[in-house]
Amino acid sequence: MVPPGVDEQERLAARTPTLIARAAILRAVRGYFEAQGFLEVETPARVMSPGQEVHLEAIPAGDGRHLITSPEYHMKRLVAGGFPRIVQFCRCFRAEEDGPFHQPEFTMVEWYRAGGTMDELMRDCEAIVEVAARAAGTWPMAPVPINRRGQYSAEVLALDGAFERTTVRELFRRHAGIELVGDGSEADMRGLAQRAGCQVGPEAAWDDVFYQVFLDRIEPRLGCARPTFVLDWPAPLGALARRKADDALTVERFELYAGGLELANAFGELTDPVEQRARFIEEAEHRRERGRAVYPIDEKLLEALGHMPPTCGIALGFDRLVMLVVGASSIREVLAFANDEA
Amino acid sequence: MPSYDTSDIRKGLKVMLDGNPFTVVEFQFIKPGKGAAFTRTKLKNLLTGGVIERNLRSGEKLEPANVETKQMQYLYKEGDSFVFMDTSTYDQVQIPHETIGDDSNFMPEQIVVEVLFFNDRAVGVTLPNFIEQKVLATEPGFRGDTATGVTKPAQISTGASINVPLFINEGDTIKIDTRSGEYLERVGRA
Lengths: 342, 190
What we know:
With 342 residues, chain A is an alpha+beta fold.
């Protein structure tokens, strides 16, 4: 029998180099935001309205509050209150998420640029990946472990130079032969997916079918040669994003994929309180239909949106950033205590 | 039969997909930031051995595959079939040659194998990875010939011919890898 504590000693010893790199990466990313003139802020972890997103489940925290699934609402209230460039490093909590790339408790880096553009956020991402990889000593080629390689990746990923940019429409056209319509009916989407050879269950909603195709056909090909920004998402998949000026079926949203990891999600923020309320009500309805808890609408956020300047905001998974630049195959490798080790 | 859902998925679970029985080889929790949770699953077709990848959305129902494996002893060949006996019930079944295929080359009488039944029909036989067999016939080797990689054919009790090194003699016992059909080592001398 192994004496108590020995496994933990060995585990922590094995993770020591990564934990040291993690601390260096955190310092480097903080340094980047400081140099860019961002103010580092802190917002509450226990909130009345943890977010309405259909597929995020918040963890109860007493007194009718829940732990945040993201710090988005309070950070937007800060932007509306006159803080144009803010960043936060905080723990977020999502029930039922545990796997090689998920933990119920993880670290998010979230930042906002009032008056900023999506393009600036993309350049932030490129710069952050660079400072992180330099801090980890892997710049400019990050190792990609086998379980993150998909079918098309090499053993290393080039991080230098501009990242690839593509759109959701282009990816569906190229990899699944599907001409995507933003607000297409469920029956249409299901037929297209089945014709593309994807197996779709009978109860799948429109977004379920979308992600079935995305995971089956597209995601294994994303960010294999270079980190890749995926822009212009269908409107139903960006409840907090503004519609594009020239295309009401598409919202200003991008995702960053690199080395088999979904790294960041950015929105051109919706600042119209009337439209935001309508979308919250719609999302609450979806949650109710699926038997999920329905949280109160955040009236203080809606009030703040009326004062908010045009803003772009983004959330980046810090644990996954560390995974990317050190070449970890599982999120537990970049934590001293994973969920089942705590 | 009660159905499974994605939370039941584990290695070795046997399920029906597209009318064929599969066994789960690997699985992983995945979840796009704004989408539903899925289980990325690698499954092996129990009839063909082919491996597929399938992303199953959380909550999707899966039909269990009516498959079971039994330890059975191979007794003898009858026409174009092979007769096996269940070692616990003594029940006998006949399995046609086409189901077993080239594996019959490494299936000496008395050997205990794993027989896979699908809807109560025998659909496959899994041999032990290694068998030991006496060489029944082979040309004598040449004294002093030490060249490596040079082989000669040797016949075993099933009638199959195995490539062996020149130093192997009739009556020697050799170890064979049933998956590749290759000679591994000499385990007994004539």
